[in-house]
Amino acid sequence: MNEKTSHFLPAELADRITGEGTLTPGTLERLETARRIADTPMKVNSAFRSPEHNAELVRAGLAKDDSAHLTGHAVDIAVHNSSERYRFLAAFIAAGFTRIGIGDTFLHVDDDETKPQNVVWVY
What we know:
alpha+beta
């Protein structure tokens, strides 16, 4: 674990290609708070992304050019069923995330203040 979280390894939060980068301190604190509220392990699908990694996902139609992942303000968490999705969603809202994307198998949460706030979308 790292010094700011007891539930997430640095490699989980770093770019999947370069192994570098992490979430901003505020985003990491919110993620850790949500994990404590949910009282359930969370699997990180994606957190910080390098420009090169994000560009690959943009080309595949899986990300946007201005993704909050690029600045360490976003994380995608795997969900396995509707009960887990509800528990995690409630925890993310309680922890202060104001931007939430809901997919079939994951939740995207971010706290990027340069983007519209208090929004929820579906994939």
